[in-house]
Amino acid sequence: MQKNLRDYTNDILKYIQEIPLSDNTVRYYRVCYNSLINYYGTKEKENLIQNAKEFLEYQGNRYMNKEIERTYYLLMRKTIHVLIDYIESGSISWKRRRYNAPILCSNFDHLLSEYEQTLLNSELSTGSIKLIIQTINIFLIFLETKEIYEIRDIQLCHVKEFIINQAPKHKSSMINLTWSMKKFFAFLNINKYSNLKVESIMSNPVRNRKKILPCFSNEELDHIFEAVDTSTSLGKRDYAIMKLSMETGFRVIDITNLCFSNINWRKYEITIVQQKTKSQLILPLSIGAGNAIADYILNGRPESELPYIFLTNRRPYKKLNRIVGANTIKRCLAKTKIIHTAGDGKSFHAFRRTFGTRLVKAKVPITTVSQLLGHRTIDTSKRYIALNDEMLRVCCMDISKYATTKEGLQ
Questions:
Q1: Residues 177 and 266 in one domain
Q2: Tell me: the pLDDT tens digits for 266-308?
Q3: CATH number of the domain to which 59 belongs
């Protein structure tokens, strides 16, 4: 028996009740779906997807005419798209949706999928693959704005124009942009999709400069942790996440992946497999970080059977994503007098730099620092030495014996 709109909407309402979402969210969904059903009444068309799209367009016009509030329209849009997805796919999924994201033409979409699969079969890290795919997706969208829908129609001038357009967004990371493009065109060349050689316009004759970003001072750390309201579940989570990063140097992705099985409470040890390097790391669990995590688990964590320690604060409870680091530090800095500007290094990753810098200042051998941070090479760890001004002063040459000729230096 073919389902009607009421059958589909009842299935969705039952699904979100079982997730479970809050009673208010379920009620909002029910109101939206009842509005859709009442709008058509007995005039329901056979094409249910067309019904839903026409209804959403009608609500959009009401919003444009200020007959309904923006919040109501956005809720209506979300509920209708869940319905459309269910009718098209036959399954219900609860996910974040991007409604205005450009959609690639079928040629480029298939090509990007094939390229992504090739990268997944390589030895590149997940983060590197994501960076490349994002860059190439933007490039393919750019080509479509130039009315280019076939790879064989790409010319060097198009690649050059794209690089120039994207350059302002990559002031300190041009090598990431050119690296992604060169890898993509290497893939095209190998598979005979294109014979275009782009190396000539993407050379990097100057070695990529490693910018030394600062770490948090002791005073800044005091202000940050004092700003957290640990009487709330969100505050307990923020405090535990920052404390863990501060005292282990873990990257935010490794914190969000942390499971109960990763902590040995009897041995005061924490074991992870780093997402970036795929290498195992075993570190002692400090009393401060351990107490903060325990407080969150016992008094702040939502009830859930998920294996991950840190979960979202709202239903449906799920594993955190890496954006939690930026959101956490943003909340805390907003309550302090610490000013954060783009590129100043006062990000969540600064906890990791602070951990590394403290090890260097404590005169821990650089080989040990490298192991504790889980770096693949010692060269990566050497960047933390540059943050220790006191030790660098010992290395400075005495220039008192050299005459100064420039007036401003005398």
A1: no
A2: 999 999 999 888 889 999 999 999 999 999 999 999 999 999 9
A3: 1.10.150
